[in-house]
Write a structure and sequence with these properties.
By secondary structure, this protein is of the alpha/beta class. The protein has six helices and seven strands, in the order βαβαβαβαβαββα.
Length: 206
């Protein structure tokens, strides 16, 4: 019998990338992993509603009003409780410390709305990435799925997909097309690949 890797998805907002993962799981293309927790740093995040609609356990670890150490201790408690093997950052807007990342070597996946190394690093998130691409006048953008290491937007690149920038694009229209054509395609693929590797190697976290 297949033992599936246990996935915790960390969110802060609407959860469109989470929805792509949930649909891939229900459709069978994410077959080596199971989403066992959706944890939000924002109590009112719509991603929590998406999780509820799919019957996935939810938790809130609010970032506001806590030290980095206290925040990450609560987060780690949730991850330990659900016995997570893999963490997926899906629109998670809170920074994780190098110490936290070291506890999850090659087990934290992030999706970034550009072709790394372009338009990444401090201050590049959400619409800001697409505004920067339009301001620079580039013709191609895209999305990158990568493993997280101690350097922001560092780590091994797993998948990238290019998306054409159209003359009439605004940041909002470009953001939507990058999500539809790249993020929602690449993230489930990358997560399935990692979960398959964890499952086949029996490399589950104790």
């Amino acid at each position: 019998m297949l033992t599936r890797a246990r996935i915790a998805v960390l969110v802060s907002g609407g959860g469109t990338n989470l929805e792509a993962l949930l649909r891939s799981q229900e459709g069978g293309s994410l077959s080596h992993g199971e989403i066992v927790l959706v944890c939000s740093s924002q109590p009112g995040a719509y991603a929590l509603t998406r999780a509820a609609n799919h019957g996935v356990p939810r938790a809130v670890v609010a970032r506001s009003g806590k030290s980095q150490e206290a925040f990450e201790a609560e987060l780690q408690e949730q991850l330990t409780r659900c016995q997570a093997d893999l963490i997926v950052l899906a629109g998670f807007m809170s920074i994780l410390s190098a110490d936290f990342v070291r506890r999850w070597p090659d087990r934290i996946v992030n999706v970034h709305p550009s072709l790394i190394p372009s338009f990444c690093g401090k201050g590049y998130y959400g619409l800001r990435v697409h505004e920067a691409a339009l301001a620079r006048g580039v013709k191609i953008t895209g999305a990158t799925v990568h493993l997280v290491n101690e350097i922001p937007d560092g780590g091994r690149i797993l998948l990238q997909k290019a998306v054409e920038i159209l003359p009439e694009d605004t940041a909002a229209t470009l953001q939507r097309r990058v999500m539809e054509q790249a993020e929602w395609v690449l993230l489930p693929q990358a997560v399935e690949t990692l979960c398959k590797q964890i499952s086949e190697e029996g490399a589950f976290r104790s």
